[in-house]
Design goal:
By secondary structure, this protein is an alpha/beta fold. The chain has helices at residues 13-24, 32-44, 52-60, 75-84, 88-103, 119-123, 137-150, 157-173, 195-215, and strands at 2-6, 27-30, 112-116, 129-134, 186-189. It binds cytidine-5'-diphosphate. Cytidine-5'-diphosphate binds at residues 9-10, 31-32, 35-36, 78, 81-82, 85, 116-119, 167, 171.
């Protein structure tokens, strides 16, 4: 079974994806870390994240080790990631890695959970379960600034909200694989829900899907 989870930044999709993977015993891929790894490598080598030719080369050479880089979660890398993510050759180069993971989840588990922006629409349109996770921009900025402060980084709310809106706009407006809910995705608004409540809703969706499999 493939579970595709999409949504904007800090909507709670990563927390949900990890929780679901653990509860179901599935493998988990945070597809954002692929774009972040490309961006981090470009920034570290002094390249412009809008340079499509270099970014494509870096994307083609991404390995699982790159997803463990300690600099992936910084805001500078997040901004650069949403720039490289708008380049079609970069997206094409990262597609095989993601589809491979979904088809042959490492650890020979019964399935895979992938989260990102285009998993249900482009990467795994055949996914049995599709969730689209949202929350208000204000709540998402509040969560992200709390996370940054906990890591010892600057988490000024107004700046985080502004940067998040810029990134949301870029992710939604790009012509190639924009952030959008798949027609058959179940939407979960997490604005007023804690992680356990969101996980319970998602597990109910999965259980329902499994029941309908057995009926078919
Ligand atoms: O953690 P957060 O939700 O803020 O970001 P992320 O999921 O790590 O993604 C970082 C950036 O990568 C996003 O702003 C998108 O531009 C891009 N991305 C994408 O285009 N497609 C995906 N499947 C995943 C991420």
């Amino acid at each position: 079974m493939i579970v595709a989870i999409d949504g904007p930044s800090a909507s709670g999709k990563g927390t949900l994806a990890r929780g679901l993977a653990k509860a179901l015993g599935f493998a988990y891929l945070d597809s954002g870390s692929l774009y972040r790894a490309v961006a981090a490598k470009l920034l570290a080598a002094g390249f412009d994240p809008n340079d499509a030719a270099v970014a494509e080369q870096v994307a083609r050479a991404i390995s699982p080790d790159d997803l463990e880089r300690p600099d992936l979660r910084s805001e500078a890398v997040a901004q650069a990631a949403s720039r490289v993510a708008a380049l079609p050759p970069v997206r094409a180069a990262l597609l095989a890695f993601q589809r491979d993971f979904a088809k042959r989840p490492p650890g020979a588990t019964g399935g895979a959970v992938l989260d990102g922006r285009d998993i249900g629409t482009v990467v795994c349109p055949e996914a049995e379960v599709k969730l689209f996770v949202t929350a208000s921009a204000e709540e998402r900025a509040r969560r992200r600034s709390k996370e940054l402060i906990e890591k010892g980084e600057s988490g000024i709310y107004a700046r985080v909200l502004k940067e998040m809106r810029e990134r949301d706009d870029r992710d939604t407006a790009r012509s190639h694989a924009p952030l959008v809910a798949a027609a058959d995705a179940v939407e979960i608004d997490t604005t007023d829900k804690d992680a356990n409540a969101v996980l319970a809703i998602a597990l109910a969706v999965v259980a329902e899907k499994r029941k309908s499999f057995r009926r078919d």
